[in-house]
């Protein structure tokens, strides 16, 4: 006889629950047969059924035996405890959801004025042409930044933030490229693991385009990607148990500033190969109290959460899998960011075998054993 779950067990179950297809963590429904998998909609359950039916338990083995062998139908979805009413809009969820329990994480952001002086607040930055600080000292190289800061913090917390990554001058040039790209009309609604859904806008409200760096007018975006690659190259083999051998194209994203955001979700909920999420922010003089757009990460197994403001020239890295559920809170001003996901070689190969190519459509091979093109 199945033991009845306590209120604490149910709460823990909710904290671990994700849509098996898109990673969303809000408004979930439970599979009516196995009661161990969750989906954000009937549509996503149907799209995932080809995979899920292989492990879904029969609700009534006796009835199945009487019916004889035949294709297992899709089980009905049942409401999960604490489910919000359908139609709840993203822009209203910030007010609906209570402040999470626990305290904010500390020690994952560089502090040029603290004991861990990794970056300086002047221009030039890592990978830039100006490696000198105002007082004549040299800036840390990408290798030193990776070895002394990123690797230890990623392996400890799974989150790392580098401020003033490229320097103000370079950051402004990248922002100009992004704004010009936005004006071309190439941005489209962000999708969920490349699956089209009528409910997408209730989950994420950003506009995106994919860039490989070779496009005309995207030279500075290409430079950013090369500097990200250099940093990861110096980290490779030392970030968890991963062997990184490639990445996605760059996803350039814009939240239009009308209260849009992205509900709590996981980047890689089903093993598509992505292991590290790398985000570069481009928002000058951003005031999160007035403009919103905060990224909040809920590291698995911790009572703390991490709040990352989308500040100009800030680089954020974190594990892409279920260890880091996160949300983008509603933004009230235009908010720009560029995201690249890096692939673990082993998981990526297995994902291709299973046809988990949602994120893989944008994947590219990257040589991480030599410096990137400095152009």
From TrEMBL:
Q: Which GO terms describe its molecular function?
A: ferrous iron binding; hypoxia-inducible factor-proline dioxygenase activity; L-ascorbic acid binding; zinc ion binding
- What reaction gets catalysed by this protein? L-prolyl-[hypoxia-inducible factor alpha subunit] + 2-oxoglutarate + O2 = trans-4-hydroxy-L-prolyl-[hypoxia-inducible factor alpha subunit] + succinate + CO2
**What general EC class does the enzyme of this chain belong to?**
oxidoreductase
Quick one: a GO biological-process term for this protein? cellular response to hypoxia
For activity, the cofactor(s) needed are: L-ascorbate
> Polar residues bias: where?
129-141
Q: Where is the composition biased (Basic and acidic residues)?
A: 80-106
Per UniProt, which keywords does this protein have? Dioxygenase, Iron, Metal-binding, Nucleus, Oxidoreductase, Vitamin C, Zinc, Zinc-finger
Q: Which SMART domains match?
A: P4Hc
What InterPro entries does UniProt report for this protein, alphabetically?
A: HIF_prolyl_hydroxylases, Oxoglu/Fe-dep_dioxygenase_dom, Pro_4_hyd_alph, Pro_4_hyd_alph_FE2OG_OXY, Znf_MYND
**Membrane spanning segments where?**
none
Q: What is its main location?
A: nucleus
Q: Where is this region: Disordered?
A: 61-143
Nucleus as a keyword of this entry, yes or no, is yes
Q: Where is the MYND-type domain?
A: 19-56
Superkingdom of the organism of origin: Eukaryota
Q: Name one GO cellular component term.
A: cytoplasm
Q: By its UniProt entry, which SUPFAM superfamilies does this protein fall under?
A: HIT/MYND zinc finger-like
Enzyme Commission code(s) on record: 1.14.11.29
Q: Where in the cell is it found?
A: Nucleus
What is the protein name for this chain? hypoxia-inducible factor-proline dioxygenase
